[in-house]
Every structure is written in C-alpha cells, then in structure tokens.
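We examine the record.

___
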Amino acid sequence: MLAIVFLVIVFLVCLNVPIAVSVASASLFYLLAEDLPLSVIPQQMFQIVDSFPFLAFPMFMLVGSLMNTGGMSRRIFDFAESIVGHLRGGLAHVNVIASLIFSGMSGSAISDAGGLGSIEIEAMTERAYEAGFAVAITAASSTIGPIVPPSVPVIIYAMAFDASIGRLFLGGFFPGFLMTIALMVMIYFYSFKKDFPRGLKPSLKNILKTLKNSALAMLTPVVLLGGMFSGIFTPTEAAVVAVLWAMFLGLIVHRELKLNHLPEIFLDVFVRMGVVLFLLATVGIFTWILSRENIPELLLNFIASAEISAPVFLMIANIILLFMGMITTVTPSIILLAPIFYPIIVKLGIDPVHFGIVVILNLMIGNLTPPVGPVLFVVSTIGNVPFFKAFKYTLPFI
C-alpha cells in the first residue's frame, strides 16, 4: 500500500500539483484504503505545527522583507562596494560580500536573491557586465544565506531533527566563510579571463560614509547572536528582537519604511507562512503513515544488514538531497526527508549539526540546478535571462 502512496505523490507532483496537496491527497487515499479513522488528520496536522521554536520562522521571514523595504539592503550593498568595488570584477566581489553580510539578517536564499538580487544585477549590467554572469554570481552568492546564521532552513531542520538551533548557527559560520572565499577566488580568475572593469579606487571618506549608513543594519546579526549565546534570549525570542530592530531602523532611523508599507509586508509573510504551515501539517500525516508502516525500522534493519557505514550513507544522502533540491525548495525537502533520515543518523552516530549543514548546503546546490532550480528561477527572472542560459553561466560557480 505504501508503494502506491509514493506513486500517487510522484504522479501528482509530475502533474504540477503543489507538493502539500500531493502529500495530503496521497495520505487521505491511504487512510481511506486502510479504513482508518479520519480523526487522525487533524490530530497529526496540529501536533507537528505546535512548536514554540517554529515561531522563529515567520519572524525571520518578516525581517528579510522589512530590511528590503526599509532600504537596509541597498546600504549594505553600498558599503560592500566601497571596500572591494575597486578590484577587477569589483561588482561581482561586492555581490558576494553583500550576500554574506545580508545573510545574517534575511537567513534565506529567496530573500537574499529577491532583496539584494535586483540591486546587484541592475548595478552590474549598467557597468557592462554580461547579464548571464550577473545572474550567475547573484544566484551562487545567495546560497550563503541559509548557511550563515541566523538561518530559516536551520530552524526548520532543528525542529525536524531535534537538533540545537544554537549549535547549528555556530556550525554554519566556517562553511559560509569558505563559500565566500571560494566564490571570490573564482571571480578573481574569471575577471582576468573576461577582462572585467575595475571600479574607482575608494576614498577613506566614502568608506566611512557608507559604513556609517549601514552600521546599524550590520549590527543585526551581532545583536541576535550575542543575545542568544549570552543567554539573554532564546533563538525564538531573538527572531522577535530582529523584527523590532528592523522596524526601528526602517521607521525611525532611516525613515524609508512607512506605516502604509506594513500591511502589504505582513500580508506577503502571512501568505508565504500559510504555504509552509499547510505543507508542514500535511507532512505530519505522512510521517505518521511512515511510522505506522515501520519504514524507519525497516531502513535501520537494512543498513545494519548491509553494513553501510556513516561515510557511505552520507554519500548516498548527498545524491538524494541534490535531486530533492532540484525539484523543490529547502523547507519541504527537509520536512519530507526528516522521518526517514533522522533514525538513520542516530543509529550511525552522525552528529546532527554536521548532518544539518550537509543537508542544507546540498539542497541549496540543487536549488541552482534544473529542471526546477527554485533560486536560479527567481534570479533569472529578476535578471531577465532565460533559465537554461542562466544555468550555463552558474554551473562553474556551483
């Protein structure tokens, strides 16, 4: 019966039915076929979303929107340009540095791509950079956001895998830094090959001016992480602090965020949250079905009998995660795979923090890869570059 349920999900997804609806329909089919009480549906739907740490998720989504509308994204871009804009291919370096800084506020690749992306691509194309290259480096640099804290996917992973949000935030620092350096090295060599232009040599006065304009915005991750790791507030409370800080900067300090902007911003976050909550709730039913069919236990027995080691499992997981990332965004992938992967990593003794960074980074690489590539699709749309042409330019940076 479970095989039929999986086939129903795959069939509906192939028909472009939303994943949440596909999972819900297949789960309902299973309950009816097994003659089980439908009261399981509301029970499991409520149980999975009844989580205090999950409150941080909509808050960080709101922070990204407030930062974009309040002009903080542009200020961060200007500061990054004043530092590295004079290098050959300077705006590409600016793109990466700005994404690293902004990631500590938006925590989301989509927010990064949608917020900074339009600013970065417009600035690069105006200065004679190829549109395809501008889209490629914007897409690649936006993947830093989910790795560097605070990160929305980290919160979802922590909830699904019963891991420490604080340890996961700490675990993302070094990989995010390595990604930044790797992209900038790639840009350095690419710039000489393509003879990209240099920007004007920065003056100390301009650097200090842009630093002053962006300093309070860049303090956001410092305030958040300092408060969390000093014990002043929890990660969930930190998300609320971030919202209040973003509103203070936008409404009072910079005055680019207006009160009449707030209803539209809140509505956008409510709509996106509705999608995520519905997906979470439907996956709650599906997880219950997997448990009832003893799928986690069967997988554990298979791993034990096949003597699969932790490194071998990680390699298999990498492939699965890459393909999942190709067709859907990070959040549903994590939620769908959690009931299958979690008991396995416990059995094999894999640190959930290590595995969390592996999961998120692999899914982000998938998000830049056809056939769907959600992040690449967003950025190519912003840059008005055909999707597969954008992928051709992005491939070396992957």
The chain has 19 helices and no strands. The chain has one domain: 2-394. The longest helix spans residues 262-292. The mean pLDDT is 82.
